[in-house]
Here is the input.
Amino acid sequence: MTVLVGTSGWQYRDWRGRFYPERLAQSRWLEHYASRFATVESNNAFYRLPDPHTFVDWSARTPADFVMAVKASRFLTHVKRLRDPAEPVRRFLQHAGHLDAKLGPVLLQLPPTLRADAGLLDATLECFPRAVRVAVEPRHQSWFSDQIVEVLRERAAALCLTDRARSRSPVWRTADWTLAWRLKRDDDATGLTFAPDSRLLAVRADKGEMRLLAVESGRALASFELPNGHLLGGVYFSPGGSQLALRGGLSGDVFIMNLPNLRVRLAQMGLDWDLPPYPAEQSVSLGAPPPLSVIIDTGAPLEE
Here is the structure.
């Protein structure tokens, strides 16, 4: 099973100095990003469809095996609300199709006020060539029915598996691949902090938990919880990357801790860090990494 891990977008100014080197020109950020992640989601097309040459440029600047998921235009999903889909889909593919083999899933993110309509969804999916992978993200509970499952299966489209602040999508297997998207907003919005050399990533996974990931593999190295039920408000690496500062979200208290002694694990990943031992009084638990934007190509239906 192939799992590709990436983020939703790559042009975030506050990543400069954390993930992107301070002096790296923004015009080179995509190359830097693609040297560390295997996939990314482009949101641009949702708001304004980029010109075909932009997709050509993105393809030329990324590795041969890079995958770019693209969110479909809101004109189709939010203005037309899936009505008369042929022309919007055709225009979208005329532009995004210039990614060629690097075009990953096309995400149809439906508005939260759009109620289920199996006929409209089926007509929209029919407009996409079978070779184009389409993921559907409903945001109204009426879509989660057996009838919608059958439409997705018939069109070999995937349900976008989402993990939001107050709800999670059902886990349906309707295609031999899927798209998982972790999106935590409101008071417990997921926070990301990169280590100084961009090889480790601290993710604020939930209100009281932080997970330490290896960027290249997406593998979870360790997870931490603040003592005494404190809510986690922020995660910060020290300049040398040897310590983490965890800020309480409500109290404002700051907890300083050394990184865990993961020399063996890091050496197996080709990293040569002399990390200090992890304090014995703190507990460390290994866990699965929280997906940010994950494309899973199983080659076969997902197992229950």
User: Anything to note?
Assistant: Helices lie at 29-34, 44-47, 52-60, 74-79, 86-96, 118-126, 146-154, 263-268.
